Amino acid sequence: MVVLSKQTTEQYSYIRNCNKTSSFSSTGIIPVVDLSKPEAKTLIVKACEEFGFFKVINHGVPMEAISKLESEAINFFSLPNNQKEKAGPPNPFGYGNKKIGVNGDVGWLEYLLLKNNQDYNSMRLSVFGQTADKFRSVLNDYICAVRKMGCEILELMAEGLNIEEKNVFSKLLMDKESDSLFRLNHYPPCPEMALDNKNGENVVGFGEHTDPQIISLLRSNNTSGLQICLKDRSWVSVPPDYNSFFINVGDSLQVMTNGRFRSVRHRVVANGFDSRLSMIYFGGPPLSEKIAPLPCLMKEKEESLYKEFTWFEYKKSAYATRLADNRLGHFEIFSAS
Question: What is the catalytic activity of this protein (predicted)?
Answer without folding.
Answer: gibberellin A1 + 2-oxoglutarate + O2 = gibberellin A8 + succinate + CO2
